[in-house]
Specification:
This protein is an alpha+beta fold. It is built from nine helices and 19 strands. Strands 8, 9, 10, 11, 12, 13, 16, 17 and 18 form a nine-stranded mixed beta sheet that branches. Strands 1-2-3-4-5-6-19-7 form an eight-stranded mixed beta sheet. The longest helix is centred in the C-terminal third of the chain and has 18 residues.
Length: 365
């Protein structure tokens, strides 16, 4: 899933729609008519179905990737390219409609703190957390047999030390003085923005055209707290750990985005962004780097040097449900202390959602 922070956005080269394409649905949102086109996945190299959401003749405003395995449909990717919540809701509704018409018994997805309550209120149930054997998962990543999504990964400290020696692209004085341009790499300028959420955005650009950016969150050992979203991280949380270390100064790369271009290799661009994160971490006394990976980018991160975090203290769906209910009552919900949440929707609930929407639509006519 790519519609929230902590989810990694890989570069997307969605092929232009040919005149032969035929829309399988047409829907209306608040401002535009949306045509939906279906094809076999030609972007992520899965056996899934890719749905493009298009305004006008060829403007793609969002895309969704579904994959069917055994008796379940998985939402692998769900992206609104213009950050329009109305488009995002339409894509979710479309996934539910597809599921309701299918022979599958359950619709599954992974959610983060930005979206989990929305899905919960829709009727999605929380699944039990899974234990993660890091050695086993690293082997699956290396052999391209990884089945899991949203793997918590860390960069070993010895690897960090080696990477830091290889390159120096950030000007520490400019960073400490809060300048916008903080470094250069060949023809690229490296910039920094502080967002309202207190996340820090770092990117690489040429003449104000951004080719890649990464969003960093800083965790301090002194107060066991991230700047945004997570709040204070309790000792039971997987985010409290860093391999075998606990409560350490580190950076969390919440997500990154790379513009697809034939001119630059996207893996090379990713590694530049990671180098920026490491150098910023060193300057800000947060020398370690963690990140969530999914099936699409886990191998790239593994080749860079990241390894999977062991997950041993898992929670049941009932325990997670209690935590979410408590978080819903708070003004600053500290939901993501237990990482990504797997959720599922059964057929009866999906049909009920569709029936309710039809009734609402008729009442508004």
């Amino acid at each position: 899933m790519t519609h929230g922070s902590q989810i990694l956005l890989k570069p997307i080269n969605i092929s232009p729609l040919s005149k032969k394409n035929q829309a399988i649905w047409e829907k209306q949102n608040l401002t535009n008519k949306i045509s939906i086109y279906q094809s076999d996945d030609n972007v992520f190299h899965t056996q899934g179905q890719l749905y493009r959401f298009v305004t006008g003749q060829r403007t793609i405003v969002g895309y969704m990737l579904l994959n069917t395995k055994e008796d379940a449909i998985y939402i692998l990717e769900l992206v609104s390219l213009n950050q329009n919540k109305d488009i995002e809701n339409m894509m979710i509704e479309t996934a539910i409609e597809i599921f309701a018409k299918s022979n599958s018994k359950v619709l599954r997805l992974s959610a983060n703190q930005n979206i989990v309550l929305q899905y919960k209120n829709l009727g999605f149930k929380i699944s039990n957390q899974k234990e993660i054997n890091a050695i086993k998962i690293d082997e699956q990543i290396k052999n391209k047999t990884l089945e899991l999504d949203n793997i918590l990964m860390y960069l070993p400290t010895e690897t960090i030390a080696k990477k830091i020696k290889e390159q120096n692209i950030i000007d520490a004085d400019k960073l400490n003085n809060n300048q916008f341009i903080i470094g250069n790499l060949g023809e690229f300028e490296i910039y920094r923005k502080v967002l309202k959420s207190y996340l820090e955005e770092y990117g690489i650009s040429i003449q104000n055209k951004v080719f890649g950016k990464i969003y960093l969150n800083f965790y301090k050992n002194s107060n066991a707290k991230y700047k945004n979203h997570f709040g204070i991280v309790p000792t039971w949380s997987d985010l409290y750990k860093y391999n075998q270390e606990t409560c350490v100064d580190k950076i969390f790369a919440e997500f990154y985005s790379i513009k697809h271009t034939k001119r630059y290799d996207h893996i090379g661009m990713l590694y530049v962004l990671l180098q920026i994160a490491l150098e910023v971490g060193k300057i800000k006394n947060c020398p370690r780097l963690q990140i969530y990976a999914n099936k699409e980018n886990a191998l790239s991160l593994y080749k860079y040097g990241f390894m999977t975090q062991d997950i041993t203290s898992v929670k049941s769906s009932e325990q997670l449900e209690i935590l979410l209910n408590e978080a819903e009552k708070e003004t600053a919900a500290n939901i993501n202390s237990f990482g990504m949440i797997e959720m599922e929707l059964d057929k009866k609930t999906a049909e009920s959602i569709i029936e309710s929407k039809i009734k609402t639509s008729k009442n508004n006519e």
